[in-house]
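Worked problem 6 (solution included).
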Amino acid sequence: MKIFSATQMRKADEVTIQSQKITSLELMERAATQIFNVLHQRLQGAPIPIHVFCGIGNNGGDGLVISRLLVEHGYHVKTYIVNFSDKRSEDFLANYDRLKAIGVEWPIQLKSEEDLPDIKQQDMVIDAIFGIGLNRPLVSWVINLIKHINASRCFTLSIDVPSGLYADKAPDDPEGVIYASTTVTFQLPKLIFFLPETGQYSQDLEVIDIGLNRDFIAQTPGFAELISKNEVLSLYRPRHKFAHKGDYGHCLIIGGSYGKIGSVVLATKSALRIGAGLTTTYIPECGYDILQTSVPEAMVVTDDQDDFISNISVDFNPSVIGIGIGLGTHEKTVEAFGEFLNQNKTKLVIDADGINILAKEPELLKYLPKNTVLTPHPGELKRLIGAWKDDFDKIDMVKKFSKKHDCIVVVKGANSLIIYQDDIYVNTSGNPGMATAGSGDVLTGIITGLISQEYDPLQAAVFGVYLHGSSGDLAIHETGYQGLLASDIVSNIGKSYIELFKKPEQQQPQA
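Solution. The predicted structure is:
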């Protein structure tokens, strides 16, 4: 599913109005009616006091339509106009008059902190103060209104986006944003729902179709792409009847040091589980017995050193190399890593200490093969590209880094981002239980194993991140969040393939 920018969403509205020969007021009525339908279906006429807070732009106009429809269906509604400016949009004014015309109590005007209404926890708030068009800091009393709504701890539904959020940057005041129980957004999701700094303001998200021009949506490249099962199904490559292990590549996993052999075990198992035909693991000598016992399906080559890797040399040509997990940053390891990069021409996936070495020795970046996949966690990413101001700045910095070094960067997180130059892919699988030791090592093995099977590196990163998250989602049905181990993710990789082809009614319920 595409993610559009605020500019693209406004253009979609304009094209829809022109192509369907409707007015903006009619489009607003259609969109707000869809939100009312969602509400009405859930509330079923329940006598809950509903407070509708409307700004004075088009988001407020949506709120006025919803207020009118709620009143017409017998709900107990109080409507408030948040007067933060003297300007009013035309569609807001039209719907203000329509609300007054049905003979209910006129909307209550809010102009300062003295006007803040009483809201009880058992009430409901509909937030229609600001939409994606917000482009300036909020006045102080409106911030206090938002804090007042949040402090009520009542169920809050935000229209399109939680008020106080910008579409393309972090909020000025983190406390000046509505914490929405549910956000119902129009037509397409927005990037802000999936970034750590801004995603926290929406506990639940629902995307509703308001009939925007489908040709425009289909023909317009998205600002980003949201990755779910529908998107990755087309990437899957089935195996043919006469396949043999040689058809699926020979991947090499390089890493490990004394006390960190477990990370290489996880990566090796993952590469095999995801479908690599052969896997060889290159480790220091101290890990030999561990690898041969833990992963009997893998072949093992050891370094001359017992506790760390000092020289990287194998006598075969692998399809792809995954390097860095548990590697350590011993002086001789750093030297060996640099010599390896200088000579290597094979596709690479680099994680953990491999990234840390690149951050310390940035001159090594020039040796990265085209489309190398880097999989940093936030700390490693910061060491690699420098500190960022906010999540949007981080994305811009990663884009520049990707362009400069022609590499793919997996920004790991709750919704991991796969960034290649100007392209952004936002993953939807995964859960908080995966915030556990070794989870990233599993991902390295998965992506390496997919490239071994001749998946394009970018496709392998997108598909691999999704399958990694899906494996974790399957695992928590037995472990719960707190009990999830990285090895549980490995154990469910096969099931994640099966899950791709299950119909919705066959899928397991969410924990």
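Discussion: The chain has a mean pLDDT of 96.
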